[in-house]
């Protein structure tokens, strides 16, 4: 298949100019590959996780062990997506290192260390590896390539997002990610925020 720039060019859905290592709260949504219901089911308004869903919970709760600058807040695993709030905490910066530009190491590829992108990338990778061991399918995709994020700007938003996350299982039949309600994939977190009343 030949490269088609209209089909294969990845557009960033991150906020231009924002430093995703900066302290603050971030509302994160990550969807499964092709929005397949991999993680369990909703029964009478409650999440009933399978083994894959339990892996997702364990990996989310482990984030602060791997990224000491991060804490986890409200979180829910749905059958085909997860919602959570990640908090990046202020960290003390030790003095800059001075290196000769002639011997400078090459610039790293990918997200900055300790950034939201690095944390989510690590989380998705850990979940994928563990689930693929359980289902004996090495290399199979678990997640969509990207994720949605929203910078939480104030306490009112934070409380609305927490309520939305908490009530997500009860609202599953109306959820935009429910298999019966599939909508085109949005390049932002806006639909989730509208549903949260933000």
Give an account of the 3D structure.
By secondary structure, the protein is α+β, with helices and mostly antiparallel strands. It has one domain (22-90, 109-190): Transposase IS200-like (Alpha-Beta Plaits, 2-Layer Sandwich). Helix content is 29%, strand content 19%. It contains six helices and six strands; from the N terminus they run H-E-E-E-H-H-E-E-H-E-H-H. It has helices spanning 5-8, 51-61, 63-66, 116-134, 155-167, 190-196; strands at 24-31, 40-43, 46-49, 70-77, 81-88, 148-152. A four-stranded antiparallel beta sheet has the order 4-5-1-6. Helix 2 runs antiparallel to helix 4 (116-134). The chain is globular, with a radius of gyration of 18 Å.
Write the layout of secondary structure elements.
Blueprint: H1 5-8, E1 24-31, E2 40-43, E3 46-49, H2 51-61, H3 63-66, E4 70-77, E5 81-88, H4 116-134, E6 148-152, H5 155-167, H6 190-196
Antiparallel strand pairs: 1-5, 1-6, 2-3, 4-5
Helix pairs in contact: 2-4
